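pasting for ref
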Amino acid sequence: MTSETRALTTSPVDRAVALVSDRASRLEPGQRLGTKGALQVECGVSKGTFNEALRLLQHRGIITLRPGPGGGLFAAEPTPMARLGNSLLALDADSTTVEDAMRVRDSLEPLLASDAVDHGSLKDVRDLWERIEHMRAAVEAEDAHRFLEANWALHRRIAEITPNQLLRSIYLNLMAIIDDHTLDVLPVADTPLESFIAERLQLHIDIVEAIEARDRDRTAELMRVHAGG
């Protein structure tokens, strides 16, 4: 990350995260960045702010902390990643496990959307629109992780509509696997996540509109677009 990019960050925590991330990216996994105290001084932030930055950096799998003599901050081993549309999911499990779950999940979603068209009640549709509003709020806040959580909540609610108990159970269990092992959502290269989640919001609005209109063909068409993105 360049100094120009760091200047655009909006808070002391962001600046500390950017500086330490930049330092870690230049090192091999396991190499020492320095002591906690020295890096805090270099970042020019308070102890509490630096601790919050370290929490985020550890959560994202960028650094590890080692206590005691010879301890400090170290570049972490690469975090497993899984591709999700125009973003990457940082994982705490082998990426193959999550990617397999995502592939099976994707194959089930058109069936669930079709059942939502056939069996969705007025309350079901109201609940779907409520979750769309949560997604919209995340887009307005430019919060990709919050958007992902709201998006998955929408899909879980669609799954709850189906009268097929086996289909619903399999899908919700797959979502639990993906959710449990996802640490963060990250951009792919220089692609802005903000634009991606705004586009995905509109697609999901269209899907809910088609479900509400009980338009099977339109819903199926949109789910094909959804699977491709």
